[in-house]
Specification:
Elements: E1 17-20, E2 25-35, E3 41-50, E4 60-63, H1 90-99, E5 102-108, E6 114-123, E7 128-137, E8 141-148, E9 160-163, E10 170-179, E11 184-198
Antiparallel strand pairs: 1-6, 2-3, 2-9, 4-7, 5-10, 6-7, 8-11, 10-11
Length: 204
């Protein structure tokens, strides 16, 4: 891949990682580079930025539910849901993964949290990763003016980059599609502004 060799990555090929922003900061940039030769995996790089003083200090931080590798599931934005456990014969499971080439997966921080970290484990059996967001809540601030980015990367197996458009926007989660044929993911990040006042909604 044509990646920048001096860029600081949080992982090596096919290895897990645990990245957390410093206290009081949120994730603002995500970059990744794909390699077919290295197990259909990606190197990942993240950047953080201090949140505006108007938000105050984070009142609570937590690891949200895990998005399993290669799973055919969709968790609604209102809260995470664990998919039912289904035992399948390995060959049947492989055939299903090849037929279901596009697998939607969505996760948003619960309790109006902002993404302040990511951890991931690689699974060679499915050539995919599981993902988990580290979320931080700021008092009872609420998101508004939310939107999804375009696909990152634009095409499977390309370099991916997403940078928050301007100060005061935050990542609240992401929707991702997994190609069972190309063994790669595209991401649409959920980006929001946050109110300067407390609101009554516990999860918005």
């Amino acid at each position: 891949p044509n990646y920048i060799y001096d860029e600081e990555f949080v992982n090596t090929w096919r290895q897990g990682f645990n990245f957390q922003c410093p206290h009081g900061e949120a994730l603002v940039a995500v970059r990744s580079y794909f390699s077919e030769e290295e197990g259909m995996d990606r190197l990942w790089s993240f950047e953080c930025q201090p949140t505006p003083p108007s938000l105050g200090e984070p009142t609570e931080c937590w690891w949200d539910d895990i998005n399993r590798a290669g799973m055919e599931c969709h968790a609604p934005p209102s809260g995470p849901q664990k998919p039912p456990k289904i035992k399948l014969h390995s060959e049947l499971k492989k055939n299903l993964q090849l037929r279901l080439s596009i697998v939607p997966l969505s996760s948003t921080c619960t309790n109006n949290g902002l993404v302040a970290g990511i951890q991931s484990q690689y699974f060679p059996a499915v050539l995919d990763r599981e993902w988990q967001f580290y979320c931080c809540r700021y008092s009872r601030r609420c998101p508004y003016s939310c939107w999804k980015t375009t696909d990152v990367p634009e095409y499977y197996r390309e370099e991916g980059e997403m940078v928050i458009p301007s100060y005061g926007y935050f990542i609240r989660g992401a929707q991702t599609t997994f190609s069972g044929v190309l063994r790669d993911r595209q991401w649409k990040y959920i980006v929001c502004r946050m109110t300067d006042f407390d609101c009554e909604f516990q999860n918005f």
